[in-house]
Structures are given as structure tokens and as C-alpha cells.
Amino acid sequence: MRVCLLASGSRGNSTLIEVDGCRLLIDAGLSGIETERRLSAVGLACDELHGILVTHEHHDHVGGIGPLARRHNLPVFIDRQTHAALPKLGNIDDLHHFSSGETFSLQNLSISPFSTTHDAINPVGFTIQSSEGKIGFATDLGIATRLVTEQLKNCRVLILEANHDEQMLQDGPYPWNLKQRIRSRHGHLSNSESCLLLEDISWSGLEAIFLAHLSEENNCPDLAVNTFRKTLTDCGHHPEIIIGRQNRASYCFEANLVKVS
């Protein structure tokens, strides 16, 4: 198992997941060339990928999908409504529609898209189940619903949004309407909101948590890490905490054996 945030933030998002011999991207918001460069930095070529999963239609999550898919003949898995909201995506030969709440298979993986709350057409998170354990992915969500909480339980690795510190956002430079959008039920989770979710889903088998979509203006890595570390310590668990960055790929979490709790 290997997980890496190739890019995370408001200017481009993409996550590499390699498990059971299957290599996927969740979103591809960087240019095709930059995605290729960051994959190369972690020892992979785009031709080695088995597909791209799409969470929602915002440009920072989909900007590179068309070029990557066409250049490397990659299958793309996308919600039908999200696909309809991307008229400029262009032709993709190997396109697969999924529906939220309906699990589908890819190679040896069982992939379950679930609904999230964000200001997009039909946004989703994912869980990926394999013989090596379960991976959960939930970013760009305004609230952690009961559905999200249930879906993210018993994960070996979590990719979870930690967009902003509430005080930094309040005191920061954003205009009031943008602050309100970020705070809304269709905006982004703060550090403290994500930690409330984590209290419900942390368990002894959680080995790594990636903090994703950190705002460069309204959060800072040390603050986010310290907030999450305190929550995890209070829960009695000590997984690795890995920060996603906008300008470079994150540290890669790698593990070979499923941890037995």
C-alpha cells in the first residue's frame, strides 16, 4: 500500500493511491505535464496508472483529467451529473459513470462513492477496500454528515480535509461573502470540525491520516498538525499525520502488511 498527496490546495488537487497492485489518482487538478512530473518524483509514470476517480467538477480537481486520459489512455470514473457539468472535458474513450451509494469494482478493489456536502453538482468522497485494508477519502465538504462518518470508519488510511483555522479565517483577508461560503454547510471543514469527525472514526487500526486542502491564507501546517495530534492523543491513537502541500508532493505513506488491532 502506498498513498501520496501529489498536490493539495485551492490551486490543484490530486492523490495517488497504490494498493493491491492497482494505481489510481483521485482527481487530477494539476496540468497534465505537472502531474506527470510529480508522479515521476515518486517513481511512477502515468502509463502505469489504472484509472482516475473524480470527486466533483471544480477546476482545481479536474483541470488535467482530459489531457491525462487522452495522452495515456486512462479510464476515468465519474458521476453522470458531474460529467454533464464538464462540457469542456472533451472526448475520453474509456469513460465510466458511477452513482453515489453504489459500489463498483476495479481490478481487485471495491470502490464506494458516497455523497458529500459541497457547492458542486453531486460531489462524492470514496472508500477503497482491498486485501490490504480500507482507505477513506473525504475532502471539500462543508459538514461531516452521519453518512460520511459511517463510511470512514475502520480505515487504515484517511485523507481528510483540514481547510482552515476558524480564528485565522475570521481575522484573515478574505471578503465577508467568501468567508461565509467557506463556513457554510457547502463549504470546507475547519481543523476543529475535522477533529470532531476524527473523534468518531479514529480506531487502533488507523495508521496514517493525510490532512488535505489546507488554506495557505487561513491555516498553517504546524497548527493543523498540533490540533489533530491532540485529538488523536486524547483518543489514545497515534497514526502518522501527513500534510498535503500545494507546491510539491507529500511524504508517501507505505506499508506492506495489514496492521492487526
Structural summary, described in words:
- The protein has 9 helices and 14 strands.
- The protein is of the alpha/beta class and 261 residues long.
- The chain has one domain (2-246): 4-Layer Sandwich (Metallo-beta-lactamase, Chain A).
- It has a 7-stranded mixed sheet with strand order 6-5-4-3-2-1-14. It has a 7-stranded mixed sheet with strand order 7-8-9-10-11-12-13.
- A hairpin with an 8-residue loop joins strand 8 and strand 9.
- The model has no long low-confidence stretch (mean pLDDT 96).
Question: Which tags fit this structure?
Answer:
28% helix, alpha/beta, Metallo-beta-lactamase, Chain A, 26% strand, 9 helices, 261 residues, seven-stranded mixed β-sheet
CATH-level-4 superfamily name: Ribonuclease Z/Hydroxyacylglutathione hydrolase-like
How far is the first residue's CA from the last residue's CA? 18 Å
Q: C-alpha Rg, in Å?
A: 17 Å
Structure summary, number of beta strands: 14
CATH topology: Metallo-beta-lactamase, Chain A
Strand-residue proportion: 25-35%
Counting DSSP H or I runs of 4 or more residues, the number of helices is 9
Catalogue the unreliable spans: none
- CATH class reads Alpha Beta
Provide the domain count: 1
Architecture in CATH?
4-Layer Sandwich
Q: Given the C-alpha coordinates, what overall shape results?
A: globular
Query: Major beta sheet, specifics?
Result: 7 strands, mixed
- The helix-strand sequence is EEEHEHHEHEEEEEHEHHHEHEE
Mean pLDDT: 96
Instruction: Give the spatial strand order of the biggest sheet.
Output: 6-5-4-3-2-1-14
> Roughly how much helix do the residues carry, as a percent range?
25-40%
Structural class of the secondary structure composition?
alpha/beta
